[in-house]
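Possible regression after last week's pipeline update?

I re-ran a chain I had predicted before the update to compare outputs. Posting the input and the new output here so someone can diff against the archived version. Not blocking, just want to make sure nothing changed silently.
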Amino acid sequence: MDLGTNERRVFNLQNYGVKRGLSFGHYRYKQVKPGLEKHQHEGALEICFCMKGQQHYKVGEQLYELTGNDIFVVPPSTMHSTGEFPEDKGELFWIQLLMDSSKGQLCNMAKKQSDFLLAALLDKSQYIFKGAFQLKFILEKLVGQLENSRSMLSGIMIDQLIAQLLLETVILSNKPQESTPSVKLYELDNYIHKNLHRVIYVDEMANLVGMSEGYFKAWFKSKSGMPPKEYVNRLKIEQAKIDLLARKTVTEVAFGLGFGSSQYFATTFKRFTGTTPRFYKSLQRE
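New output (post-update):
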């Protein structure tokens, strides 16, 4: 492994014989981190796989919001950042690959094959599409091989896994995508917004859409990329930002959104924003 902690790992792919690879990385954050500043990857396409939670990418003036199981492709040499947002809690993988075939073979594939895959991915750049379970399996196997790369066999496995990852991603990018949220999600969203002032229980949301609590949790996470309780808390925190700007006190905002104490509210606020309500309030006055 080249760089990393228990939460974040980054590998320089060229150190592993991937001539047209830049970095491959993975993070699993339990709380938000500072946002990504504007940067670009010269000549390299970046594919981001958001497995859990939420992540934002700002490309030019366009903001993209990824949730669990979303894939996003950043075009080569394009300035991007997380905008005004932090790196969110959750799990995300990314890989950066050079487009220029003169840099060498990509994972020992024929030029015609690698050009086809990268062109297909470039065609889907700045467009969010859904992933699938098999990608997580491939990505985790790739992390394992990079962490324990000590032989020719590991090198072959790394090439094969990257090639498989690109192929599966291209196939998924061509699948029809859900164009609009379901009626049940609209109903839930309206219900949550109308009841942000109090505690909203998972079982009442499940009853609203006629599901058992266990099935509802799995269904909701598959649709939104996060558990229902986290989704509700995210909406509460977004409302809290508005309320804090309206010069309400932290205690007023906490109880006005159904939190049992201002301390619990402050803990939740920091988990999703990276700062405390009081500090956030003071920044907005500057």
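Follow-up from reviewer: compared with the archived run. The longest helix spans residues 152-173. Marking as no regression found.
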